[in-house]
Amino acid sequence: MGKAEYPYLYETHLHTCQSSRCARNTGEEMAKACKAAGYTGMIVTEHNWYGNNCLDSDLPWEQWVEQFCKGYENAKAWGDENDFDVFFGYEANYAGTEFLIYGVDKQWLMAHPEIKDATMEEQLSLIHEAGGLVVHAHPFREEPYIPEVRLFPEYVDAVEAINATHSNHLSASHNNPTWDELAIAYAKKHDLPMTAGSDVHGIQILGGGVACKKRLTSIQDYCRLIRSRENYLLTNGDEYYNKSGDKVETE
After folding, report:
1. How wide is the angle at C-alpha 160 spanned by C-alphas 226 and 99, nearest 5°?
2. Is 184 or 57 the better-scoring residue by pLDDT?
3. Which domains does the chain possess?
4. What does the pLDDT look like over 119-157, one tens digit per residue?
5. Residues 6+ apart with CB under 8 A from 206
6. Closest CA to 91 of 102, 107, 82
């Protein structure tokens, strides 16, 4: 299986310092680094209101959303001028369990302030009503900020089966490839589509993500790709896997 068949690589899990407390670089800096590393595009997935976010939680909702989107908008402005795709997403936190949310935008968030204090089930239902995609991020990661592994196969559309921080040779955190092996097995058990991303917080790019046969034109394209299980590859930046989570040799 040649990588030339899947020439469009997308980073699907990425943070900027303009909203995520744990990140070190701006959206523009992250976009430049990803393009230089060979990506076609990236999805900015900042930590949300009850996650590891650096914004003032007392701001009125619309002002908070404006600030929340700054990293994405900074990246997109650079991407639009440099033939690099930048799409919007976010990472929702519910008592340490995290979900990657795709398919809604800034305007949708502004119109739905009720999502901030909704239960996990209510949050995910709102996303689904809007046609969005819910991906369980690194479901088996064990860290002090994650009090327990909790699985919700009935509420998610897909599983982040490959998280490059777990297994890429350059990763300096969360190093445990077993967590990816468990995520792959979990997705297979529940017949859920799989995704991959780097969970990157700085310009040391790991190369993880989803490789496609066709270039994406919108975040909705990405949602359709995953939901329909079209032919794509997953990578942690070192190795490649097919959409079923099986390791493949690439030329």
Report:
1. 95
2. 184
3. 3-248 (3.20.20.140)
4. 999 999 999 999 999 999 999 999 888 889 999 999 999
5. 164, 165, 168, 170, 171, 198, 200, 236, 237
6. 102
